[in-house]
Amino acid sequence: MTLVFAGCAGCAGTDGLNSGEAAPPVSAQPRPEVVWPAWSGTSPRAPGADAATRQPPPKPLTGLPRVGSAGLASLNVHAVLRADPRTRPLAGRELIDRPGRAGLRRPAFLDLTGDKKPEMLVAADTESGRNVLAVYSAHGGKVYPVLLTSGRRMSVETIGADLLVRMPCAEGGDQAVRFHWDGVRMSTVSDFRDLTSDRGRPKRRGGQGDPTERAEPGPAGPASPCLSSTRPPGGP
């Protein structure tokens, strides 16, 4: 059925455009930008991610020099990992520039908090094929761990100032968890699992109901069998 609306002269709404007025520009929505392109989900060797459970607010790392005007980029990435008790076992690994080897990806520096001071993103690939992503922020000259997540075949992207972590699920499908700065840490704002996207494996059928599942974020973090994050303790 086709609906036809007849126009009437002089019927412009109070919030509409008058004759001859230009339409306001449409603001572009942010699109996902890959943080480490070589490790994007298109690579069969690309590793994976774990999401986080809620813990007390983050505490500053000790044993590091005060962060000055040069920001976190002035710090040695190995020293930062060594200062964080949870990433200390990864601190001795060499830097790598492509997937397929164990080591540390070169750190990325992105402003995730909106304060014009880029955070440090560090990802480690382990011999078992598991991957760890750690994010550090600087406040008052001190370094705070604001996100820790790990898993397999992890692909990390940004959407505006948010982080999007993608990974395939072992039993089929893909999962994407979005993290947003909440003033204290990078917290989960969405956790989406798509069973229809299998990265080359047959789709699962029967007994699954709706082919997509959305896990709402809660105090315990994302409820998912694929991604599990760990938010570091402490707070600025």
Characterization of this structure:
The protein is mainly β. It has one domain. 3% of the residues lie in helices and 32% in strands. The chain has one helix spanning 77-83; strands at residues 33-34, 52-53, 95-96, 103-105, 108-110, 119-125, 130-139, 142-152, 155-159, 162-168, 174-181, 186-194, 212-214, 228-230. The strands form two sheets. Strands 2, 3, 4, 5, 6, 7, 8 and 14 form an eight-stranded mixed β-sheet that branches. A hairpin with a 2-residue loop joins strand 9 (155-159) and strand 10 (162-168). It is globular, with a radius of gyration of 22 Å. Residues 2-17, 42-53, 198-225 and 230-236 have low confidence and may be disordered.
Detail the topology: elements first, then pairings.
Blueprint: E1 33-34, E2 52-53, H1 77-83, E3 95-96, E4 103-105, E5 108-110, E6 119-125, E7 130-139, E8 142-152, E9 155-159, E10 162-168, E11 174-181, E12 186-194, E13 212-214, E14 228-230
Parallel strand pairs: 2-14, 3-4
Antiparallel strand pairs: 1-9, 4-6, 5-6, 6-7, 7-8, 8-14, 9-10, 10-11, 11-12, 12-13
Low-confidence parts lasting 5 or more residues at pLDDT below 50? 2-17, 42-53, 198-225, 230-236
Secondary structure category: mainly beta
Estimate the strand proportion: 25-35%
Q: Helical percent range?
A: under 10%
Order of helices and strands: EEHEEEEEEEEEEEE
Instruction: Please state the average pLDDT score.
Output: 74
Number of helices: 1
* Count of the domains: 1
- Overall number of strands: 14
Rounded to an integer, what's the Rg over CA atoms? 22 Å
Determine the N-to-C terminus distance.
60 Å
**How would you sum up the major sheet?**
8 strands, mixed
Q: Please state the overall shape, judged from the principal axes of the Cα atoms.
A: globular
